[in-house]
Every structure is written in C-alpha cells, then in structure tokens.
Amino acid sequence: MKHITIADIAREAGVSKATVSRVISKSNLVSEKTTSRVSSVIEKHSYIPNVLAQGLAGKPTRNIGVIVDEFPNNFYIDLADGIDKVVSANNYTFQVMSSQWEPARELEGVCSMLKSRVDGLLITPLSSNSPAVMELEKSGIPFVLVNSKSEDPDVSYVCCDNYRGGALLAEHINSLEHEQVIIVSVFDHETVRDRIRGFEDHLCSGAVPIIRYSNAKTYRDGYELAPTVAEYDSIMKKKTSLFVTNDYVAIGFIARFLEMGISIPRQVTVAGFDDIRLSALCRVPLTTVSQSVCEMGRTAAEYLLRLIKKNSRSPLRKLIEPYLVIRESTTKKTSE
Amino acid sequence: MKHITIADIAREAGVSKATVSRVISKSNLVSEKTTSRVSSVIEKHSYIPNVLAQGLAGKPTRNIGVIVDEFPNNFYIDLADGIDKVVSANNYTFQVMSSQWEPARELEGVCSMLKSRVDGLLITPLSSNSPAVMELEKSGIPFVLVNSKSEDPDVSYVCCDNYRGGALLAEHINSLEHEQVIIVSVFDHETVRDRIRGFEDHLCSGAVPIIRYSNAKTYRDGYELAPTVAEYDSIMKKKTSLFVTNDYVAIGFIARFLEMGISIPRQVTVAGFDDIRLSALCRVPLTTVSQSVCEMGRTAAEYLLRLIKKNSRSPLRKLIEPYLVIRESTTKKTSE
DNA sequence: CTGTTAGCGCCTTCAC
DNA sequence: GTGAAGGCGCTAACAG
Lengths: 336, 336
Known about the structure:
- The structure is a homodimer.
- Chain A has helices at residues 6-13, 17-24, 32-45, 51-56, 74-89, 103-115, 131-139, 162-174, 190-202, 219-232, 247-259, 277-281, 293-310, and strands spanning 63-68, 93-98, 120-123, 143-146, 156-160, 180-185, 210-214, 240-244, 268-271, 288-290, 317-320, 323-325.
- By secondary structure, chain A is α/β, with parallel strands linked by helices.
- The first copy, chain A, has 3 domains: 6-47, lambda repressor-like DNA-binding domains (434 Repressor (Amino-terminal Domain)), CATH 1.10.260; 63-160 and 293-320, Rossmann fold (3-Layer(aba) Sandwich), CATH 3.40.50.2300; 162-291, Response regulator (Rossmann fold, 3-Layer(aba) Sandwich), CATH 3.40.50.2300.
- In chain A, strand 8, helix 11 and strand 9 form a beta-alpha-beta unit.
- In chain A, helix 6 packs parallel to helix 7 (131-139), helix 8 (162-174) runs parallel beside helix 9 and helix 10 (219-232) crosses helix 11 (247-259).
- The first copy, chain A, is elongated.
- The model of chain A has no long low-confidence stretch (mean pLDDT 90).
- Chains A and B meet through helix 4, helix 5, strand 2, helix 6 and helix 12 of A and helix 4, helix 5, strand 2, helix 6 and helix 12 of B.
- Strand 2 (93-98) of chain A pairs antiparallel with strand 2 of chain B.
- The structure holds a DNA duplex.
C-alpha cells in the first residue's frame, strides 16, 4: 500500500500542492474556506506528511540525537526522563545510541546521528576531547556536552559540580572521628577526578593517613575488594572513613562488610556519590552526594533547543549544584 | 557551511553521481580502480550520505522506533539495553518516546514515528488494543508488542509469561505457614491481571481467607498502605503471606513494616514481582519473580528486524519464561 | 490568497 | 562498467 502524498491531497481538494503545504505548516495566508476544505481531506485520509521529504526540502527535522555511555544504568534513565520532558514539550523527538564506553563506537554514533540529520546533539562524552566531540565541532551542528566540561570556550555543557560535591563530603567527614581515610575511585573519568580533588582539597587530614585504591567499577568489585581493604588496612583496629566515588560500588563494600561482621558506621563509615535510588533503601542507607541527573537532562535539552532555535553562537554552560545526603552509613543511629 | 553532496564527490572524482552511489552501496559492478578513487575522495572530505535523501529515494531508513510508558523505570533501562544490543549489532538506530501512560500521547507517538518513516516499531502498549496499536495495524508497518499479548492472530509480541510467574509464586507460598493471604495489585494492566490469575489459580487456599487490595503504584503507596493493611487485617495476630504484584511497592511495605516493628518473614512474608536490582539489596532481600526484561528487549528487536527484512507476514510471538527467586522476605534466615 | 517552478540529495532504471 | 534522466515528497521563492 502506497503512502498518500501531498499531491493526492491537493488533487482531491482541488488545490495545488503549495496550498496544502501551507495548510500543514499553518501559514495563515490561506483563506479559511480552503483551509477547512483541505484539512478535512487530510483528516479523511489521515494523511501524515513525510518528514524525510520535509527535511530534504530544508525544514528542520525536529529530531535530536542523544549519545550515552550505556543504557543499563540509573544515570541514563534519569537523564532520559529529563530530556524527554523538555523535548516532547517542544514537539521534538529524540533518538539514542550508546557508546558502550568505546571511543570508536562513540564516533560512529556521532556520524550516524549526523547523517540522519538531527537538528542537534546531546552527548555524555567519554572525554571532553574524544574524537566524537572533535567531529561534532567540525560538523557545525549545535550540541551540548552532558556530564562533562570543556576547556574550549565555544562548547556548551551541563555538568554536576563534582569538585564541590567532593568538598561537601569532605566537610562532613571532617566531623567524624577516624584514624584513617580510604578513597576508592571508580574508573578514570574527569568527573571522578573532580570528586576526588574536591574531597582531598577540603579534607582536614592532619596526621591522619589517606589511602587510595582505584579501578573498582561495579557492585561486585566493591564486594570483592572489601576483605582486602579491611585486612590490609586493618580497619578492625583503626576507625576508618571510606569514600567510594560511586554508590553502586559503595553498596558492594557495605554488603561485604556486614557479612564480615564489621559494624557500620561504628567501625567504618562509608560514603558514596550519585544518590541512586538504591542508596536510600539498601541495608545500611548510604551517605552520598546527590547530583540531580534529571535536572541535568532538562537543562541540557533546554540549552540545546535554545542553540538550535536562536542559533545563538554564545555557548551555554552550567554546573549543577550537588547536595549532601547524610544517612546511616556515616551516622550512628543503627549499628547492626 | 553547506553539506558536501554526492555531486561534489562525483565532480572531484571525475565520475557520475550514479557511480558514486554505487560505490557507497557497495554494489560490485564498479571497477576496482574507480572504486578506490571515489572512496579516497569520500574519505578525504569525510563525506556522509544524507539519510533523508536516501530514505526519500526509497531506501529503508534503518531506524526503528521504540515507544515505552515512561523512562524513569528499571524496566525501561533493561529493555533499552536489550534492544540496543541487537539493533546496533545490525547497524540500525532507534528513537524513543514515552507515552507517560496517556493513550493520547501514545497515539501521537506512533504518528510521530510513522511520519519520520521508521522501518518498524517496538511498543509497550498501554493495552493490546489501544488506539495506538490500531493505528499501527492500519499503517502496515512492521511492529511488535512488548510486554503485552494480543488476541489478534496477526500481531507479533514478546511478553513475560506472567500467569506462570504468578503460579510459581503461589507454589512457593503454598509451602509457607499462614492463616491468611493478602494480594496487593498495582495498576490495572493485563500483565498484572495475569500475575494475579496465575497466583490465585495455583494457591491452595483451603480455608485460608484471601484479601485483596488494589491500586498501589509506588514505593510510597506501599509505605503508606502498610499500616492500614496491618491493622485492618490484624496481621500481628494472624500469620500472613503478602503478595505485592510489583517489587517497588513491595519494598515500600517492607520498609514500613520494619519501622512498625513487624518482623519479616516471621510474622509476615512478603513476595514481589519483577526482580529489580533493588530487590536483592534492600533491607530484607525480597522473594520475587524475575522476568528477564533485557531478553525481552533482545527478542523483540530480533523479531522486528526479521519482520522488516524478510517482510515475513507470519507473526512472531514468544512468552518469556519467568523464574522464582527466593530470598529472605519469605524464608526465615533472618528475623530483624 | 493561490498556483507555478525549481530544487533538496540520492537511487534506479535505461541506454551506451 | 559507466553516464543521463527521472522521480521520491515536500518547501520556498516568485508570479499572478
């Protein structure tokens, strides 16, 4: 079954294609009579204009692209939710791709989006100067970086103020008693580095030693690293403050500590970062820093639409203020 | 800055547009020499063919549409992950929309997808005969229902076998001691109805009363409904088995019960449905039925691609087998 | 207000 | 093997 085209409508309504086109785009230089006649024919056949043709003929596609690291991730759903809210409210649609953390796939994704002629692009880049971002700059298409910053004064971005988040946490931890501080960082990403910098810059360590671990990425990693950390740093003997730069991993630590009979927060306090849903509801609710990912999505989408519409060359940027959420993993309400 | 077109490439390579087109589509009736010459020009300008034009000229867009209820939802991320895996492996892209549970938006979504000429559509419909699905049938475009079944013998779908899931749970609960059973159903959806039917059909109630509540949708709802349920049905006195048709809500119940000092599973056992991540890690790990949403996504996407490629008119359908996950909320390892 | 005329960038016959 | 020509469905001047 062939699609109905504008020509069919025009013929049946006894007007020219141009007139039909005008009716569709609500250009108000068509008489009311013709408008209603044409409209009814459109209605009757439930005719839907072909976006491809519209796009080819120069109209914006009203479709934006979104590239994320991966889907199975709390970060992504909140982001998608935020984006969806503003995008759909503005009668735009969006398509998504995941880079699976591979620069090559990320670049491919950008190319793919580019060739489907999206009006603009949102991307959580692997790094602020990944090939994908370079390609984007070259293309001249409006885009905004999400969850990443950029040195380049021309690029727009929306990111959590991770440095500040780390600082908030440090201030809280300063108020706790401890004989050592352990920092476990997840993968190597600018956001994570900022968290740690903020944390270290504001920690009143005094004579207290700081111990660092890196590269724990998952719940499982935390779960498995816990005994090593516990034994090697003899946390049974020294009261310890543990900062894990990602909630999921932190929760893995907690789970294992509990199994090992290590009391939280009495012997060890644990703090995370992100405030995923789980953090409030897990065995020992987790003290963490909340970054409003949904707001990040909303803001980024708004910025992008603004760039698209006004073609405003001035870059738009925002650091979203994180806030501290104190729960039982660092305060002594319970002890298990 | 104008986009480079096929004509530019043709001119620079000293061939016709047709030849360039052939090179792009890897049609092998072009001499190797011309191929490499053209390719290098394409490379040099990093030329990307315009998908809109290609689509207009009759080629498939290799873009499929996905319509879901809402994004901020564990179900969605797993689904997206599954879809992404097969879609990207096949060099397709996808765009997403959410219905926000409103039939009107759902229909709009379908229309929007249709007009952007997606090659096919995946949808988790509000109901198997919602206007959106009707529209889809009319359109003749390949589509498959996800998380929904259909009476219509022509419609393809992939769904969890919710009836079976309910049955599995009933069998487990039959083995527990109790003096009453309480069923709390979340919103009115065919999948939820199936869960309850399966549950009730396989419950050996005997003389044990079954009490029903409905319309608890969120964690909060569970949390707030708990005291009422506890008091009204005097669960302090009667050993109770509680089945909540959705994990999130079940976890809300558990949280409140604990606060009220009601011991789980000693006094009340709680079972859920879905097996979201949280269920394994919350205060009292939740017995539940796992439906592999990721697999659902994968299967659905595979079916859709098959429909698109072979234009196979035979509908493809599958009920995915759920399985029971028994945890502490129904067994007596802990007691709090 | 409305119709006519060109394209938009690409693919696909059909000839050579 | 390769080129020329027509058309995909629509919009945007330009005339009337």
